[in-house]
Amino acid sequence: MVWSPRGRLVSLGGSGVLGSRPVIPLPLCAPWDAPPPLVLHGRHGTPVQLQARLRAELQGAQGPPGPGDVGRLPLLQATVSETLRLRPPAPLALFPCTLSPSSLGGLPVAAGTVLIPNLLAAQQDPDIWQHPEVFLPERFLAPGAPSRSLLPFGCGARSCPGEGLARAELFVFLGLILREFRLEPGPEGLPGLRGSPGTVLRCPSFRLRMVPCQPPGLP
Ligand code: HEM
């Protein structure tokens, strides 16, 4: 897979070299060069309102969230998915290499070519995701949600074997935190979503204020 910034196949022309291997070049625009405008509010509610809705869902459930509670906590699960959609931690995945001559979108690909999938761009393709720049967990709750186009862990035979563990950790830890705390920006405010270039999209450090909220069942 090779994706343009809008999730389309880009030209295979203009070769590069990685070690001794030919490389299908990066999309013309690396994902961190053009961060989309992020909208966290509007008709879908502010982040504070989302936290309140998540807390209501969590506090309405019996006991703290566990890995098997995905079906009981759909908004929490949708929030994890939307986070992985808008900012996939590994936006360029790994760099798979073809073992034999192949083709991609009708174009020939020589054996030993490195392919670089741009997951971040694919997950913001406006032909698939409505208002892709908006953080909107509800999109995963709607009937016909394009969940199969969510690829933060890659796809196919070499997809991430740690997906189940990673998703369970995100679900449980986010749920445990939001069940008991309200998160507020620290004095310096929140960082942008630009991230640091690298194989992994890294967020700069920042401070949050964690305001305790009483979980149900505690005095
Ligand atoms: C949010 C957390 C994680 C993300 C976003 C992530 C993402 C990815 C991606 C995109 C790939 C490349 C898939 C492809 O080329 O199609 C990958 C591969 C891999 N991941 Fe993860 N991963 C995560 C957590 C983990 C964890 C927790 C483990 C191990 C416990 C793990 C182990 C691996 C391994 C071994 C591969 C290489 C698979 C192969 O080449 O066959 N990952 N991951």
How would you describe this structure to a colleague?
With 219 residues, the protein is an alpha+beta fold. The chain has one domain: Cytochrome p450 (Orthogonal Bundle). It is built from four helices and six strands, in the order E-E-H-H-E-E-H-H-E-E. It has helices at residues 47-60, 74-86, 119-122, 163-180; strands spanning 16-18, 21-23, 102-104, 107-109, 181-185, 208-212. The strands form three sheets. It has a two-stranded antiparallel ribbon. Helix 1 packs across helix 4 (163-180). Protoporphyrin IX containing FE binds next to helix 4.
Q: What do we call the CATH homologous superfamily?
A: Cytochrome P450
N to C succession of SSEs: EEHHEEHHEE
- β content, as a range? 5-15%
What's the β-strand tally?
Answer: 6
What is the overall pLDDT average?
A: 77
**Do you know the CATH topology?**
Cytochrome p450
Main beta sheet: 2 strands, antiparallel
Under the CATH scheme, which class?
A: Mainly Alpha
Order of strands in the sheet with the most strands? 1-2
Any ligands, ions or cofactors bound here, and which?
protoporphyrin IX containing FE
Question: What is the CA-based Rg, rounded?
Answer: 20 Å
Helix content: 10-25%
CATH-defined architecture: Orthogonal Bundle
First-last Cα distance = 54 Å
Helical run tally = 4
Query: How many domains make up the 3D coordinates?
Result: 1
Low-confidence stretches: 1-19, 23-37
Cofactor: heme
Family: Belongs to the cytochrome P450 family.
Organism: Junco hyemalis (Dark-eyed junco)
Binding site for heme: 160
